[in-house]
Design goal:
Structural class: mainly alpha
Shape: globular
Number of helices: 5
Strand content: under 5%
Mean pLDDT: 85
Helix content: 55-70%
Largest sheet: none
């Protein structure tokens, strides 16, 4: 007579998570750097919208001059992107002191902004096609600025603390 219990071959045991993953940790992405770059780019795009909305609100709503509105827009947007990147792109850096990290992030993003605008200015000054199609200069500047911003955010502003 056959036993009612299943044999070991008949028992299905679901796979367990990798041993380095705790109960509240996510399984690591197969391409963590690519995922980080994507999150950084998406947050930067949202930052552009925050910057634009702040400039419009400050200029048209509060009557501030465009230069002052631009500085205010940058500060609001860089703070927004710092908070979002701290939470979603570089969560391992959340244990660091906020004030110091924010200051480093603002400094690195300001450097990226200078490279962005410098690339734009160089393109429209020296490349005829960029003068005819300024979108090329805007794109080149954005790309140059984003690459520098990501590298400096990752290595300076949100650098992983060594134990």
């Amino acid at each position: 007579m056959r036993s009612i219990r299943p044999t070991p071959a008949e028992v299905h045991v679901p796979p367990s998570p990798p041993p380095h993953v705790g109960p509240t940790q996510a399984v690591p992405a197969p391409f963590p750097l690519a995922a980080q770059v994507l999150r950084f780019g998406l947050i930067g795009s949202l930052g552009f919208l925050v910057d634009t909305a702040t400039v419009y609100a400050a200029h048209f709503g509060l009557g501030l001059g465009l230069h002052v509105a631009g500085v205010l827009g940058f500060l609001v947007a860089v703070t927004f992107t710092w908070v979002m990147n701290r939470r979603f792109t570089f969560p391992e850096a959340r244990s660091e002191a906020r004030g110091r990290q924010w200051a480093r992030f603002v400094a690195t993003q300001t450097l990226g902004f200078v490279v962005n605008r410098g690339t734009y200015a160089g393109m429209i000054s020296f490349v005829a096609l960029a003068r005819e199609q300024p979108v090329l200069a805007v794109a080149a500047g954005s790309l140059a600025g984003m690459v520098l911003n990501f590298v400096t955010a990752r290595t300076i502003a949100f650098r992983a603390r060594r134990a």
